[in-house]
Amino acid sequence: xxxxxxxxxxxxxxxxxxxxxxxxxxxxxxxxxxxxxxxxxxxxxxxxxxxxxxxxxxxxxxxxxxxxxxxxxxxxxxxxxxxxxxxxxxxxxxxxxxxxxxxxxxxxxxxxxxxxxxxxxxxxxxxxxxxxxxxxxxxxxxxxxxxxxxxxx
Length: 153
Known about the structure:
This protein is of the alpha+beta class. 27% of the residues lie in helices and 35% in strands. A 7-stranded antiparallel sheet has the order 1-7-6-5-4-3-2. Helix 2 (27-34) crosses helix 3 (116-139). It starts with 6 loop residues before the first strand and ends in a 14-residue tail after the last helix.
């Protein structure tokens, strides 16, 4: 059996665990730095949706909350809306928040990816989203351009 590819990203943010937790789980805040509203009550077993912030109501990803330990750890499954019922096609994202004096270390682990193409997509997506999150928490505003639109290379 071959192991599915995964991705790990660590970023340090001048923030508190509580503020970072709110930024990860508040739909209005996720819309500011991600371009999507992450909608859920964030309780284990609850459904969540990654809904475009353009008002269309389109969810580009869905899943279930696996673990929720505010403000330290959040684990959820991720799937395309058409594959919500196919657990074998779900990946898993873990956010771990660790404080250190006046900063927090955020570790994002995205595992259970289907193939190297999916791993490559998340390897370019997560740094862009998390850079925008860092800017929002540290300056009060996201980056002036959407970082995921920067051409590769």
